[in-house]
Design goal:
binds 5-O-phosphono-beta-D-ribofuranosylamine, 8-stranded mixed beta sheet, alpha/beta, Rossmann fold, globular
Length: 198
């Protein structure tokens, strides 16, 4: 039986689309829910157009009440009964309490060659560090920010004159190849790591 995948987004959802498109008849998993914390996330309409159920838990009314937000997020996820959760540009920090509930079943894509450049502004930080390669990583989510076991990485060259925007634009298509490749293996219980080079 196919594994059930819920995808959490906050924005345009291009990684979500790449994951959902890859989940064809031959895939060991299927997308059962796209959930956003942002009512204006462009990815919600894209999911609807692809025939995937959507849900929204707006984080803003929960200001100062992270536990309340996560409790409602958890409830919305449970309704879809997912086996795997993919964070795909989900821009909320999750607490160890929430992460523990989905231990071993939650993946994230991060736009750097982890363990370098955890957190935000990864492209600029790679430039500032004088890196000549840059990349993205898919990892399991643990309580440590961007710190869980790495399942796959993709790398691109940093070219003379590159800006942070140039890097972000050139990296995104690699993210769209890497995340589906890792999810296929993860859903298949195949622990072979994925490495991609542009
Ligand atoms: C991607 O660069 C992802 O690595 C980062 O946020 C971006 C999301 O883009 N965490 P999208 O919403 O998937 O288009």
């Amino acid at each position: 039986m196919k594994k059930r995948v819920a995808i959490l987004i906050s924005g345009g959802g291009s990684n979500m689309v790449a994951l959902a498109r890859d989940m064809d008849a031959s895939h060991p998993a299927k997308a059962v829910l796209v959930l956003s914390n942002n009512p204006n996330a462009g990815g919600l309409a894209k999911a609807t157009n692809m025939g995937i159920a959507t849900a929204m838990v707006d984080h803003r009314p929960y200001k100062g009440d992270r536990a309340g937000f996560e409790s409602d997020l958890h409830a919305a996820l449970l309704k879809a009964n997912p086996d795997i959760i993919c964070l795909a540009g989900f821009m909320r920090i999750l607490t160890p309490n929430f992460i523990e509930k989905w231990r071993g079943r939650m993946l994230n894509i991060h736009p750097s060659i982890l363990p370098l450049f955890t957190g935000l502004h990864t492209h600029q930080r790679a430039l500032d560090a004088g890196m000549v390669i840059h990349g993205c990583s898919v990892h399991q989510v643990t309580a440590e920010l961007d710190g869980g076991p790495i399942l796959g990485q993709a790398v691109i060259p940093v070219l003379a004159g590159d800006t942070a925007d140039d890097l972000a634009k050139r990296l995104l298509p690699m993210e769209h190849r890497l995340y589906p490749a890792v999810l296929r293996k993860f859903a298949d219980n195949d622990d072979m790591k994925v490495s991609l080079f542009s």
